[in-house]
Structures are given as C-alpha cells and as structure tokens.
Design a protein that fits this description.
There is one protein chain. Helix content is 78%, strand content 0%. With 176 residues, the protein is an all-alpha fold. The radius of gyration is 26 Å and the shape is elongated.
Amino acid sequence: MLIFLTMIDASEGKQKFEILYERYRKLMYYTANNVLGDTRDSEDIVHDAFLKVIEIIDKIDDPESPQTKALLVTITENKAIDLYRRRRSKKMVSFEEEYIGVPEPSDIEQVEESSRLVKAIASLSGKYREVLLLKYAQGYSMEEIAGMLSLSMENVKKTIQRARKKLGDYLEREGE
C-alpha cells in the first residue's frame, strides 16, 4: 500500500485511498478470482485496478458509498475480463512442455483426430465446406451466414444439414 500512497500527492487523496484499500481489496480480489480462477493473476488485477483508482481518486467523493463500491468492482471486473480475453486469444503452453518439446498424448490424439476431420472437410464441395467453416469454426449464426452468402435461412439450414450428412458419410467410408 505504501507504494500506492507515494503516487498520490494530496493528503486527502491518500486518506481516501487508504480507506478504499482497506475496505475493498478483498472484494476486488474475490471479483477478479471469480473471472480468472487464478490467485496470482487475480492479485495482479487488483494491483492494476488500484492504479486506475489512483488516476481517478479526486473524482471519488465518499469512499464508503455504494457507488464507490460498485465502481471498484466494475474496474476490477473489466480488467480481469480484459486479461482473460488476452489469454484466451493466445494458446498458453507451460514452460515444462515447451522446454522438453514432448507433446502430451492427448494433444497427439487431438491432432490426429483434427487431421482426419480436416481431410474430410476438404473433400466436401466449396459451398458445403464454406457453410460448415462459417458455422462451426468461426461461430457465426445461421442468420449471419444467410446475410453473408445472400441466401435464405432455409437454404442455409438445408446446406448445413447436407454438408453434415456428406461429412458423416465420408468419415464412415474412411472407417471413423
């Protein structure tokens, strides 16, 4: 807390910050941990949230008001969600796995399964492949796909249905 206090010039701001820190740090940690599920990341998020609080300390009138509590929870939650999204967008590999260079058996099986599925999807005609990838790989809704491809909803549903059938037939023929 002393490091934070050195960043604040006014004594009134320091007093507010002390109250905020003592009163809400556990709640902020709990909020971050609910989003992230990791103690170290949650501690880092609380630290970042308090840095943001220092920037706006002059705008906080009553450190013990419900509005202030809601503000601190919102700041913490947003910072935790940002970190979660950043981490989710990057595949994290633990140091040991990367150092040893030996993939887990489940990873190998997943790659083999994925490879078979990729071959099966590649065997489909262009329009079937396109709707399957838009729906399942990219996560677009049927309405969005219909808009992108200038098709009716019924046409998109039927095309996906046929593509899935052809994919299933191919995998059956290949002994999957």
